[in-house]
Amino acid sequence: MGTERLDWADPTVREWDCTVVWSDPADPEAGIVLDRSAFYPGGGGQPPDHGVLLWEGVQTRIVDSRRGSSSGDDLQLIPAPGDPVPAAGTKVRGALDDARRSSLMRTHSGLHILCGTVFRDFGALVTGGNMQPGEARMDFNLPEVPPGFKQTLEDAVNAEITADRKIVARVLPREEALAIPTLVRTQDALPPLENPEIRVIDIVGLDVQADGGTHVASTAQVGRVEVVKVESKGRQNRRVRIRIAD
Fold it and tell me: Which long-range contacts (CB under 8 A, 24 or more apart) does 139-142 make?
């Protein structure tokens, strides 16, 4: 069955009850597998969540998570070095680091707004990206930029935030998803599209992309985006660095 993905079902979940279905207390690096989990395991440029497991008066800090090697449906939570590992069958309560997750959600949605705006206004595809809580960068295949590009782009992105567009996560049958012409905005590395169902993030009226990350419910929840810097990265690429302003 794999781990039930609470992070996909409701990205606002921060605490939940669950059961350990697999662990090896003698090998903490093997990870802890829960029957249900809100920990995002990382991917698509979004770092994994941090948090804790609470059980029998004990706290286990979770500092990383990843998809299982034998099954992509099993999520392995990595405890902090030296922290105790609950045995299989233990009832635990999971809790996310709310500040980190909320900031990553705002940042990830901000990147999608940036990506959709650049594609709409300049027709440029993404060639790379990275994010941390509250700041990120995205590279575009954009050989030429007009005068005033940095401020023009910042204004356009914040206009989309002010528009308070809904951000909707949907899981579509593979054929239906692949019929969306703008589903993939990356020039080189493609997301896994061979599954029978593909999860898409729809910023209604602006951007639809295949994506597995966590997002806020509307563009207004992102807050103001500052375009910190625009850099040249080779003849064809421009790197746009952004910061989420509180």
Answer: 139/233, 139/237, 139/238, 139/239, 139/240, 140/237, 140/238, 140/239, 140/240, 141/187, 141/236, 141/237, 142/118, 142/236, 142/237, 142/238
Q: Give residue limits of the domains in the chain.
A: 4-96, 101-245
- pTM higher than the cut 0.85: yes
For the record, the structure tokens of 62 come out as 């979770």
Q: What element of type H or E holds 226?
A: strand 224-232
- Token pair for 175: 């054929």
CATH number of this structure's domain 4-96, picked from the four choices 2.40.30.130, 1.10.10.10, 3.40.50.720, 3.40.50.12780: 2.40.30.130
Could you give the CA distance from residue 20 to residue 53 in angstroms, rounded to a whole number?
Answer: 10
Domain 101-245 fold: Threonyl-tRNA Synthetase; Chain A, domain 2 (3.30.980)
Longest dimension (CA), the chain: 62
| pLDDT single digits (tens) 98-114 | 999 999 999 999 999 99
Cβ atoms of 135 and 241 within 8 Å: the answer is yes
3-class SS at 211?
coil
Helix (H, G, I), strand (E, B) or coil at 89: coil
